[in-house]
Amino acid sequence: MSAQAGTAPRPRISLDSRLRATALSEWIKFRSIRSGPLNLLLTAAIVLLGAWLLDAQTRSGWATMPPGARASFDPIGTTFNGIQLAQLFVGALGVMTVTGEYTSGLIRGTFLATPQRAQVLAMKALVFTVVVWAWCTALSFPAFFLGQSILSSPAKHVGIGAPGALTAVFGAGLYLTCVGLLGVFIGVVVRRTPAALSALFGLVAVLPFAVNLLPSTLGSQVGEYLPSNAGEQAWHLLPGGAYMLGPWSGLSVLIAYVAVAALAAFALIRRRDA
Amino acid sequence: MDERAGATIEAQSLKKVYGNTTAVDGIDFQIKPGRVTGFLGPNGAGKSTTMRMILGLDLPTSGTVTVNGRGYQGQVWPLHEVGALLDARAVHPGRSAYNHLLSLAAANGIARKRVDEVLEQVGLTSVAHKRAGGFSLGMSQRLGIAGALLGDPGALLFDEPVNGLDPEGILWIRTLMRTLATEGRTVLVSSHLMSEMALTADHLLVIGRGRMLADMPLSELIARNSGERVEVRSADPQRMAADLRAAGAQVTLEPDGTLGVLGLGSKQIGELSYERGHVLHQLRDVTASLEEAYFRLTGESVEYRAPIPVAA
Amino acid sequence: MSHTMAALSTGSAGHAPPTAYRRARAALAAEWIKLRSLRSMLVTPLLAVIVSIGLANLVCFNWVKKWPHLDAAHKAGFVPLDTNLNFVIIGAIFLGVLGALVVTNEYGHGLIRTTLAATPQRGLVLAAKAVVLGLVAFMVSAVICFTAFFTGQAQLSGGHLPHVSLGDPGVLGHVLGAVCYMTAVGLIGLFGAVLVRSAAAAISVVFALLFVLPALVSGLPDDIAKRDIVPYLPTNLGGSLYLSHPHHAVGVASTPIAVLATAAWVVVLGVAAAFTLRGHDA
User: Fold this and answer.
1) CB contact at 8 A, C85 and C175
2) Which chain A residues touch B185 with a CB distance below 8 Å?
């Protein structure tokens, strides 16, 4: 080939092709490291095991429970309580999807292939959302049925058709997905794994505890609007303690936090790479 | 449209300031296709910064840099036009070489079989499905080169490509770069290895403290910046030196009796010795080297200098 | 330059191999320099101090503000020491993360190879890290706990709420218990990180162990597992140490048992870490 100047205009590549190319690249990256599938497996294991253990414990201790506790017992909330632990793993997965690239320096290669950084972040988040939501919703159903079958009479239990039950099962999947996404965006803002993990876990696990230390009414007023406390209502059948938010309003609060984190992430993604 | 036809990389008044430091101070250059352009300069001179700006990883403080008349930032699927090896270790250690390249290829709509092709071209087919974290430095370099070649681009940028390669690998990369240039592509290589640069590059850009010190063909750089001299050893160095000085040459006398002569060719020195009755032991033209030319040119601009150790 | 070369050539070749004491001192010095020269290692204790003391004061402040509006039952149930020291669970997290960072910072960039090249005895390296971190954690915890105590109680007494002073029976013991607990958590973080090796896993484990696990099991009805296992989780042991009225719902170990059990956590993890370090390639 003669070395004629290559200044002829390049053929236009449709937006659809470009987005699909980026999404495909992100999917390949997600599925090709061990930590991705491993984290998802652990999440499933924790939720299922949690359902089994917690409900079995409740079932065996049902007779000795005080009547007040029995009345306020939430069969779905208890079944899904393993989510409190599982959210750490989904959150870590979200964080590492981003910080793994910054730590290894791979992010430079990613931006060389796709200089449009907002597009990269959007597709990364999209692939993550689709995969995690599908997985977590899929595992919520077996967890629900497993738990309710263990909570056999006289323990309080519900069927899938009961009012609020289906909402709660979908709510579990949505909650985990949101926590994971929070991890993704915090990862973009912080860029270092230990700091991002600490920030996410601090927000999701520690802050509720800290707020609880405040005198009663103030504690619950603030605590109600913390991301995890609010979002958790999504997979509870009965409102938790003093919290008044219902499942959908609670989830909306969590989604608002995710949106704020997303805004920060998109604003900051153009910074010089670490 | 054949995008392998070379691309011109052009910078105009390119400037980059970080806080108080001016990393790149208003440089201009045009890197043309069909030849290997070497990028030389001391550590901290601004080579990496310039390369990053060409690739859109950093934004210039002022001035422009374009590939084929377009800035990198807005490019769609740029790997088809520009391939780069910046940092061989910039891979996720848990990912296989194959999947690493596959994710890059997918991002720019490059066919899957191209991944197999480049893996074969760099000789990594046998370890394609092994974790990149377990690769030696040489293997990582080759993986990085494979990534640069994926899109069959018209312009290629290499930052220290021979780092970690064994002699066979060094010969291979040198041949590869020359072949790419012969095919009409634009090749920019940044390296410290003088001997390699002298064998590979056709044209040189020398940068020091953010400023362009030289932008010319290799041969011209050497000719302009190194001293051609003749080394003479004779039976009576003192008398020889006096005679040569009388003939108008500059003579330096080394402790071991060797004379370094500037200004007279070996033919003239030989004839003069015969006329004056000197016994010659050695008459040698010292060929100019790139290393010498480089040190002369950049002597003032070295940022980080360690004292050269002297044997006790 | 020539004199430096001369010094090198005759240098230490004539000395006897270093004694165990000198080796230990060298290892300790190396670990201390590594710790104080990384920004993340300085930021973490700083955050611990700010967050812990801030939280303790915030809580006390709010109690003072709300006091007039509280009913008699709440006022009767108010425990000044416990309210003041409740922050310890959160403060301990920072120290756990610090402990994990001491280890994972080395694995990240292959620094572990340099460290082991300088000190091939891996047990010594681990011990040196543990000693340096332990001392730092102890001092930081002491600063945090005593400052939080004094400032918190000052607020309570200023607001005419029930309050205690260091001289009251048992109070000093509880504050010291808080310091020891936080130090122990720092060491648990360090040894845990050696066991799991990755930074992400180490930090997840620290948070899971200290936060999520207690929250999960606290809602369970009373039974064997709850009586025999739950009280010995680190956070509950801590509670037994520094709270004068720990929650009976999660089980309470007596003070001597709590001290022993906490020490056991640290020692068992430490031994496991030592064995792991020997077995692994760097």
Assistant:
1) yes
2) 3
Instruction: Point out the residues of chain A with pLDDT beneath 70.
Output: 1-10, 240-243, 273-274
Contact A120, A110 (CB under 8 A): yes
* ipTM of the complex in this document: 0.86
Angle between helices A117-150 and A165-190 (to 10 degrees): 140
A34 touches chain B (CB under 8 A): yes
* Residue where a domain terminates, one of B173, B195, B224: B224
**How much is the average pLDDT of C232-246?**
83
CA angle B59–B61–B64, rounded 5-degree value: 70
Measure A118 CA to nearest chain B CA, in Å.
Answer: 12
What pLDDT is recorded for position A56? 87
* Pairing state between β B229-234 and B280-286: antiparallel
DSSP-derived 3-state class of residue B39:
strand
A101 part of contact set with chain B, CB < 8 Å: yes
Residue B253 lies in a domain: yes
Q: Give the DSSP letter string of B102-126.
A: HHHHHHTT--HHHHHHHHHHHT-GG
Place of tokens 């803002």: A189
The enclosing domain of B39 has a CATH number of: 3.40.50.300
Can you read off the two tokens belonging to residue A25?
């690249």
Q: Collapsing DSSP states into helix, strand and coil, what is residue A124?
A: helix
Average pLDDT, chain B: 87
B216: β partners: B204
Across chain C, what does the average pLDDT equal? 82
Handedness of CA B70, B71, B77, B81 (dihedral sign): positive
Name which of A33, A49, A85 to mutate to probe chain C: the one with the most chain C Cβ atoms within 10 A of its Cβ. A85
Q: Return d(Cα A220, Cα B178) in angstroms, integer.
A: 71
Residue B298 located in a structural domain: no
Tell me which H or E stretch contains B205.
Answer: strand B203-208
CB spacing of A106 vs B99 below 8 angstroms: no
Q: Are residues B62 and B163 in the same domain?
A: yes
